[in-house]
């Protein structure tokens, strides 16, 4: 039970609170016996096969993720150009040969199943943003390849354009804050967060769709269900301990350099959330109300690129309700809500934002 690493002096109070959270966490992790450490059934830890990139833009992101090929650097085609909309301005060109590759100035670092793909796609509608379509996984899996490799993965940009990428596992990667800081200490960091209980269920559902034989959610979530002991070492649960993960980012980056997007509001009010993201990135307000429309069949808002030909299918900020979540026992959900509550409260304090996940509780 190691105490959290040295906090910046100004955060002593926060730290004392989070120390107690750490202890709570450690107890949850350790009770049930140290020999009981589960092999990583966790979706993102199961690295036998690298996860396929989301196929929302099949024609663009047709190559495998950059971690798959053994060639040291993917070709330019391994990286989707930032959407069908060419950058604005007379100098801009749709040809990938134009401009220069740069290291990213802003990253979407998490969280898995939070809505990072939706955010990235909405940002790519902005002419001053160019982003990698696949997840480079540089600061976790591919760090040994070096910064030149990383830069080569990036799309070309012209003056005034922002280079971005998203890899949701960065947020829970211990080494990522230090590594990103050593690349550029002014890197802007965006985290899309969502109620950790629905996030965990969504995470499990995704794994289940790939590996139908895994145990039930209830079995994986508890060390001992009779005792109500949550298994916080299961990644589906662990990822949602946002306060603990955030603490390691705050060792390297000031809060002002981080922006937290509500995954819930990204769906209920996409233009509002995008407004704040564009402000944070210092971008003109381009992606506004008129970029979104609500598709009733899908039950989600979808992106509308104003000058895009109608041939390509639109990107929606959520999947159609095709992938139904398994029915989870209500008492399990209640137990999980209780488990997350102190961590959520801590997270609200650390970020100065109330994400109102407790209201989901009322809806149960
Ligand atoms: C759970 O805890 C109860 C009460 O201590 C115990 O009887 C039971 O054997 C435990 N179950 C497991 C799977 O460890
Ligand atoms: C809405 O979504 C449905 C289901 O995916 C799709 O078939 C339909 O074309 C979409 N409508 C619009 C206007 O995008």
Automatic annotation (TrEMBL):
Keywords: Disulfide bond, Glycoprotein, Golgi apparatus, Membrane, Signal, Signal-anchor, Transferase, Transmembrane, Transmembrane helix. Belongs to the sulfotransferase 1 family. One of its GO terms (molecular function) is [heparan sulfate]-glucosamine 3-sulfotransferase activity. Residues 40-49, 57-75 have a biased composition (Low complexity). Disulfide bonds join 302-316. This is Sulfotransferase. It is an enzyme of class 2 (transferase). Residues 104-341 form the Sulfotransferase domain. 3'-phosphoadenylyl sulfate binds at residues 113-117, 194, 202, 321-325. It is found in: Endomembrane system; Golgi apparatus membrane. It holds the Pfam family Sulfotransfer_1. It is a single-pass type II membrane protein. The active site is at 113 (for sulfotransferase activity). Its EC number is 2.8.2.-. GO terms for cellular component: Golgi membrane. Transmembrane segments: none annotated. InterPro entries: NST/OST (IPR037359), P-loop_NTPase (IPR027417), Sulfotransferase_dom (IPR000863). Its main location: membrane.
């Amino acid at each position: 039970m190691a105490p959290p690493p040295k906090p910046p002096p100004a955060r002593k109070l926060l730290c004392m609170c989070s120390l107690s959270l750490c202890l709570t966490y450690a107890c949850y992790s350790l009770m049930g016996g140290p020999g009981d450490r589960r092999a990583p059934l966790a979706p993102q830890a199961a690295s036998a096969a690298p996860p396929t990139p989301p196929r929302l833009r099949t024609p663009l992101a047709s190559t495998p993720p950059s971690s798959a090929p053994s060639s040291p650097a993917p070709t330019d085609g391994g990286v989707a150009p930032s959407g069908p909309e060419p950058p604005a301005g007379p100098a801009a060109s749709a040809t990938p040969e134009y401009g220069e590759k740069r290291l990213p100035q802003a990253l979407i670092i998490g969280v898995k199943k939070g809505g990072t793909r939706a955010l990235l796609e909405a940002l790519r509608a902005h002419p001053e943003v160019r982003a990698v379509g696949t997840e480079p996984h540089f600061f976790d899996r591919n760090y040994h390849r070096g910064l030149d490799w990383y830069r080569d993965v990036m799309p070309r940009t012209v003056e005034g354009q922002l280079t971005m990428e998203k890899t949701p596992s960065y947020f829970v990667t211990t080494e990522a804050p230090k590594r990103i800081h050593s690349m550029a200490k002014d890197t802007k960091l965006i985290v899309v967060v969502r109620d950790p209980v629905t996030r965990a269920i969504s995470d499990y559902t995704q794994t289940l769709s790939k590996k139908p034989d895994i145990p039930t959610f209830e079995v994986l979530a508890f060390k001992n269900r009779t005792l109500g002991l949550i298994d916080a070492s299961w990644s589906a649960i662990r990822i949602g301990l946002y306060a603990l993960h955030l603490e390691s980012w705050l060792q390297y980056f000031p809060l002002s350099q981080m922006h937290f997007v509500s995954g819930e509001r990204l769906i209920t009010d996409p233009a509002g959330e995008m407004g704040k993201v564009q402000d944070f990135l210092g971008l003109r307000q381009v992606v506004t109300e008129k970029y979104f429309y609500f598709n009733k069949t899908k039950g989600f808002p979808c992106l509308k690129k104003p000058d895009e030909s109608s041939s390509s299918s639109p990107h929606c900020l959520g999947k159609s309700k095709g992938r139904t979540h398994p029915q989870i026992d209500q008492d399990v959900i209640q137990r999980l809500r209780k488990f997350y509550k102190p961590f959520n409260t801590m997270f609200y304090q650390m970020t100065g934002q109330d994400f109102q996940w407790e209201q989901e509780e009322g809806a149960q």
